[in-house]
């Protein structure tokens, strides 16, 4: 329903505002996001991490500073009447993202591929909570890669680069979830 509401909104905007510009980002991340920081929090306390769809869902995360640069350039260049997929420089699977986060917070956790029927049950339970960790909608969306579709231009296609590397950026704020916090002895890693 979440994805359908976004498509319905895009179609309504395109129908009524021909000069509109629609930006379709992959995951946007930064120090105050609800993506990396939620996983850092979970991974710092849980002994294991479930991998839905075996962690194979692909993403092209884009840093918030890069998305701001895209917005600035679109306005500055007066680009109108387009849909642009906003992506970062890397294509990462969900499992790769989790592994990079674990390396950054200096933790080791067991990654367990969850069978779909168990994932659906846990999603139903979680979505009853005030701040759900996972909803049925989110679980359904994880079936699909969130990468360049090929239907639209990307920020790279129109000359707007996004150069920030995921593991380098999360390293800047992950100390909050390391043992010892900002005073931990961990030196910045070179995640691969």
**What is CATH's topology name?**
Rossmann fold
Total domain units: 1
Shape, please? globular
Largest sheet: 3 strands, parallel
Can you list the strand order of the major beta sheet?
1-6-9
The Cα radius of gyration reads 18 Å
Low-confidence stretches: none
What is the residue-averaged pLDDT?
A: 91
**With helices defined by DSSP (H or I, 4 residues minimum), what is the helix count?**
7
Distance between the termini: 35 Å
The CATH first-level class comes to: Alpha Beta
Task: List SSEs in N-to-C order.
Answer: HEEHEEEHEEHEHHEH
CATH superfamily: NAD(P)-binding Rossmann-like Domain
Q: Beta-strand percentage? A: 15-25%
CATH architecture: 3-Layer(aba) Sandwich
Structural class: alpha/beta
Query: What proportion of the residues is helical, as a percent range?
Result: 25-40%
Number-wise, the strands total: 9
Describe the structure in brief.
By secondary structure, the chain is of the alpha/beta class. The protein contains seven helices and nine strands. A three-stranded parallel beta sheet has the order 1-6-9, with helices on one face. The protein has a two-stranded parallel sheet with strand order 2-5. A two-stranded parallel sheet has the order 3-8.
């Amino acid at each position: 329903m979440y994805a359908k509401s976004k498509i319905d909104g895009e179609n309504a905007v395109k129908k009524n505002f021909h000069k509109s510009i629609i930006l379709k980002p992959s995951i946007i991340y930064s120090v105050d996001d609800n993506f990396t920081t939620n996983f850092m929090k979970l991974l710092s306390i849980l002994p294991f991490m479930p991998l839905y769809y075996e962690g194979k869902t692909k993403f092209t995360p884009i840093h918030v500073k890069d998305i701001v640069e895209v917005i600035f350039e679109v306005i500055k260049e007066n680009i109108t009447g387009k849909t642009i997929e906003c992506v970062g420089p890397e294509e990462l699977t969900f499992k790769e993202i989790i592994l990079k986060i674990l390396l950054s917070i200096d933790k080791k956790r067991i990654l367990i591929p969850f069978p779909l029927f168990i994932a659906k049950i846990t999603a139903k339970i979680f979505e009853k909570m005030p701040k759900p960790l996972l909803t049925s909608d989110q679980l359904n969306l994880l079936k699909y890669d969130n990468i360049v579709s090929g239907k639209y231009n990307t920020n790279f296609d129109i000359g707007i680069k996004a150069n920030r590397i995921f593991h380098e950026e999360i390293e800047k704020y992950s100390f909050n979830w390391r043992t010892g916090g900002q005073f931990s002895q961990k030196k910045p890693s070179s995640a691969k």
